[in-house]
Amino acid sequence: MGNDIIYIFGHRHPDTDSICSSIAYADLKRKLGIDAEARRLGEINKETAFILDYFKLPVPPILETVKTQVCDLKIDRAEKLSPNTTIKKAWNIMERSETKTLPVVDDNEKLIGIVSMSDITEKYMDAFNYNAVSAYGTKLENILETVNADVAAGDSEHFEAKGKVIVAAGRAENIKEYAEPGDIVIAGDREDVLLEAIRIGAGCIIVTCAHTPPERVLKAANESGTVIVTTALDTYTTVRLINQSIPVGSIMCRNTDKNHIVSFHIDDYVENIRDQMGKNRFRSYPVLDSEDHVCGFISRFHLISQRKKRVILVDHNEKSQTCPGIEEAEVLEIIDHHKLGDLTTTAPILFKNEPLGSTATIIANMYADLGRRPSPQIAGILCAAIISDTLKFESPTCTDFDRRTAERLAQICGIDIEEFSAKMFTAGSELKGKTPKEIYSQDFKRVSFNDYHCGISQITILNMDYIKDEKPGILEYMAGEAAGSSGFDLLALMITELSKRKTEMWITGRLSDVVRRELLMKPDENCIKFDRLMSRKKDVIPLIDSAIEKIHLQ
After folding, report:
1. Which residues, listed in sequence order, are joined to residue 312 by a DSSP beta bridge?
2. Which of 77, 312, 378, 469 has the most crowded CB, counting CB atoms within 10 A?
3. DSSP label at 304?
4. How far is it, in rounded angstroms, from Cα 18 to Cα 335?
């Protein structure tokens, strides 16, 4: 997730209005130059799938949570090192970037270790370790880079550091007393010293002060394989720098059985890494992406500089219906057509709530208000959402404004409302292959009445015959798994038959007897039929609310 993106999403168990409004409003934001993306909080139903396929639009990616993640922190970016990088170069990078730790990666950019300033100083300050260059497998190119040298003679291709580092400061005949085959010899321009070092079998001779070795020396080196390099540095500086040619791969902290690098991933949640940081007292921790590539480093300081995810809610404004972690996000706007819920914000926001049949109606007219025109695709899904949420203008929540908006959108996208509605509702009525849980959950809303919690689902079908065979399984699911897993006091399922403009409502739960009595249902009935009752929001919820309210009056 990017920190500058605004995520726009509808409620859990998304219906057509929720999904299409999210897509359209994200499109409008982008037309205004704002980086916005539509998301969904659950699986889409068949009706919505038909609409998106019809207008050739992709299904929005799912959004599991808006809790703060590592990607929301202002992490320190870090330059990556190869394990062959010299400690001199690593130190220079640390000073330039004002960081104390750098990641070491392999050829595939995967983390293999980390190196810190303390690692470097520990090795470099060991002034008596004359074997460090060979002990750590230092390559010739590291030596050339560190002392800024050039190869003058010898077999540089097959050079391998084997011995210690010595300075040939005395007479030539005395070199054999402290020099051995394979040693790295630092010397000046004395020809006899250079030849004696070659005769002994030095692996490499570093000639300082920009001296050019005599031709006889170069010839001897080529014949013996001893590598001669020349540097403009003086002998003291060369000696001081030579140990800085050690590769960082030899001194870095790496993952082993005894030593484990504590790292985090970019999508880890801050609440989790805070606990891990409390158990480990490291200064900083590497951050990896999904492919284990290094993104940077974080420390405890970064936890107080987190940036909240920015979100816009459409078609809902209740905490129980929105994305998990919403309390950690920055809510910028709410566009809705339902009753006021319980969401609160820390700052004033744009809250656009209108008594219309569909959120899509509000968003469609925001295009016009902001001087923008929706594309035929966007106009199509907005029109479909209005048709869906108003049950093709039959719902009591539908207004003339909804109808006029849908007709205008239909002209833009080039559809016939009657023909398209028939296809859309037919696709949405297909229940074959669905489990009772999938059928019941496809358009589900959680509603609270005083201290009671109810779940109300609605299915829109063209003919009641489509669902009669599924009724036993759905009722069993409602009375068993659905009620038991969430602690609902009442569960209801509205089955709205568009062809006859009728609704059947099935109920179960410990408050079902109260509702049956108030709705004049028989004690053993779990179904009641309504003529021209089609709206969950405007018809059924007030009925249930009135029935439950009488419990408090008794």
Report:
1. 8, 333
2. 378
3. G
4. 11
Entry pTM: 0.68
Which strand ranges, in their side-by-side order, compose the sheet holding 111-116?
Answer: 101-105, 111-116, 253-254
Residue 503, burial from CB neighbour count under 10 angstroms (0-12, 13-18, 19+) = buried
Confidence of residue 258 (pLDDT cuts 50, 70, 90): low
Whether residue 553 is predicted with pLDDT greater than 60 in this model: the reply is no
Query: Token pair of 175, please?
Result: 């070199």
pLDDT of 257 higher than 70: no
Does residue 292 belong to any structural domain of this protein? yes
How far is the C-alpha of 147 from the C-alpha of 232, rounded, in Å? 9
Sign of CA dihedral 415, 465, 502, 491: negative
Same domain, 218 and 255: no
End residue of a domain, out of 245, 267, 291: 245
**Averaged pLDDT for residues 184-203:** 92
The arrangement of strands across the sheet holding 350-353 comes to 36-39, 6-9, 310-314, 330-336, 350-353
Q: Tell me the percentage of the chain whose pLDDT exceeds 90.
A: 45
Could you tell me the CATH number of the domain that includes residue 339? 3.90.1640.10
Structural domain count of the chain: 4
Please write the tens of the pLDDT for every residue from 494-511: 888 877 788 888 888 888
Inter-residue contact 382 to 360 (CB < 8 Å): yes
Q: Of 396, 428, 460, which residue sits at a domain end?
A: 428
Q: Is residue 79 part of a domain?
A: no
Identify the DSSP state of 110: B
298, 78 Cβ separation under 8 angstroms = no
DSSP 447: E
The answer on 158 and 19 residing in a single domain is no
The residues pairing with 92 across neighbouring beta strands, listed in sequence order, are none
Q: What domain range is 160 assigned to? A: 139-245
Map residue 125 onto helix, strand or coil. coil
Inter-residue contact 98 to 121 (CB < 8 Å): no
Residue type, 179: A
1 located within any domain? no
